[in-house]
Amino acid sequence: MRKIVKAKESFEAAGYNYEDIRRKRDCSIKQIYHKLRGDFSKVSWRSLVCNNAGCPRWIFMLTMVANGRLYTKDRLLKWGIQTDQACLLCKQANESIQHIFFECQYATELWKRLLK
């Protein structure tokens, strides 16, 4: 009985009532799921992560970077954790996602070699 009540609540949350479901002949769980889930815009980096044949560790790292969730020293500082902010690779600037992957001289050299 609880499952039936819960299913009824799910239908109502999706915007359907009993009459709507009864009248629909082509109603599917997929349609209800998408209605419950709502609209989500696709992110530009999706194809890099989903169609990537790389090592799972690389894919995980790429996902963390794309979402801004990589543990860098600037992010630790925002949490109140005091640490030396200098980049470990070049010691020229503060460590951040932008610096580590794009601005650091080591990253620049690595990107050049990879793109050749």
TrEMBL record:
Top-level taxonomic group: Eukaryota
Protein name (database record): Uncharacterized protein LOC142175751
The species this protein was found in: Nicotiana tabacum
